[in-house]
Amino acid sequence: MNKLKINENYKEFLTSRLIIKPTSLEDADLIYLIMNSPKFMKYVGDRKINSIQDAKEYIQNRILPQLYSVGYSNYSILLKKNKKKIGICGLYHREGIDGVDLGFGVFPEHEGFGYAYEASKQLVNAAFEEFGFQEIKAITAKENYASQKLLKRLGFEFEGLTNFFNDTEEYLFRIKRSA
After folding, report:
1. Structurally, how many domains does the chain consist of?
2. Are 28 and 55 in contact (CB under 8 A)?
């Protein structure tokens, strides 16, 4: 059973296996490692986070302002059993995207266990039930088949092409709230 926990006025989510908590400065190591992972660099791009200090500044300047203004942003994914940080998932307001965008990523050693799906499913439900969104978008590289598969499993449908992350075309997906 999934529960909602309020932590310092911001929502933290618990699933059967995961803690999904708002990313804080304490997660700079996670942000540094995930944003420099080969898949993130290939499919999303270089965020110029070359040190833990850069990650702290990214959290301070990009993640926390959205959290403070709207109550959601990037979330750190931790395993319940040992509190190990395994990835990120989030609901983002991105310039050039109308509405909220779902993003996710887990470390390679934690892929294939359903963690990204579990965390994303929880945030999709929260976007509709807790935050009141009527639809959510997601962007993925054309060659990122694993992300496309996960989005389709979540109920997202292919919407069209966009050039949001890179100079190449990406796929835009959308899910609408059920009636």
Report:
1. 1
2. yes
3-state secondary structure the chain: CCEEEEECCEEEEECCCEEEEECCHHHHHHHHHHHCCHHHHHHCCCCCCCCHHHHHHHHHHHHHHHHHHHCCCEEEEEECCCCCEEEEEEEEECCCCCCEEEEEEECHHHCCCCHHHHHHHHHHHHHHHCCCCCEEEEEEECCCHHHHHHHHHHCCEEEEEECCCCCCCEEEEEEECCC
Q: What is the domain range of residue 18?
A: 3-176
Quote the pTM value. 0.91
Structure confidence at residue 163 as a pLDDT band (50, 70, 90): confident
Sign of CA pseudo-dihedral 69, 23, 55, 87: negative
CATH number, domain at 85? 3.40.630.30
pLDDT in tens, 10-31: 899 999 999 999 999 999 999 9
Q: What average pLDDT does the chain have?
A: 90
